[in-house]
Amino acid sequence: MDAKKMISAIKANRIFARCPEEELLSLIEKGMIGERTFESGEEAVGGEGFERSMGILVSGKLRVERLDDDRRILLNIIRQGGCFGVASMFGGDDAHTLVSASSRSKVLYINEEGLSSLFLRIPELSVDYIAFLTDRIRFLNSKIRSFTGGSSEARLAALLAESADEEGVCALPSMAQLARRLDISRASLYRSLASLEQSGSIRRDGKTVVLVDR
What percent helix, strand, coil does the chain show, rounded to 5? Predict the structure, then answer.
């Protein structure tokens, strides 16, 4: 990507909407903003010079999963314009979170040094950054509630909604994997799928699920 396209992609993210273009251009020229492309299944890591960085998804789709012993719990699907890695900045630790590409994906990374310099020069960006973090905390709290409380059917519906693409379509993993993610028995999982299908909330075609009422 050329610098103009990189700046446009970054400013499309809510955190950087108020950032002057010349400030972003300066970071690009100093090597504090980088670009990487990932194939499906690859872990989306920033690489050398971007060990502590936040990523902005330019194209494709990413999965955010929490590693819990031998289980992977889906937390979020990141689509174009979304960002990740924010919690690992400024001394944070995201060691138990895995971000991987669901399809061929292009990501722009802004390293910690570059982000710090923006905050020092443009205080309003700090406010937008804090607002994003606050929304993220609310979102994660809602995910925790969906996976630890409520009926098996409600927890399954929440996971399907987060896993679906823009057309409401998602591919199911094996029933054993899905049951582990939801921490329910396979019998409960089959009953929950059948209930959602009978209510008209989903349509199933093998391992493909279409959300009818999103």
Answer: 45, 25, 30
Tell me the C-alpha to C-alpha distance, in Å, between residue 199 and each of 157, 182, 213, 214: 12, 20, 10, 13
For the stretch 58-98, pLDDT in tens is 999 998 887 766 667 677 788 898 999 887 787 766 667 78
Is residue 132 a contact partner of residue 185, using CB atoms and an 8 Å limit? no
Q: Can you read off the two tokens belonging to residue 127? A: 């406010």
Q: Which DSSP letter does residue 50 get? A: -
Question: What number of other Cβ atoms are within 10 A of residue 58's Cβ?
Answer: 20
pLDDT tens for each residue of 158-186: 888 777 776 678 888 889 988 988 888 99
CATH class for the domain made up of 3-146:
mainly beta
**Domain-wise residue ranges, the chain:** 3-146, 151-211
> Quick check: pTM over 0.90?
no
> At a CB cut-off of 8 Å and minimum separation 6, what does 175 contact?
186, 189, 190
Q: What is the CATH number of domain 151-211?
A: 1.10.10.10
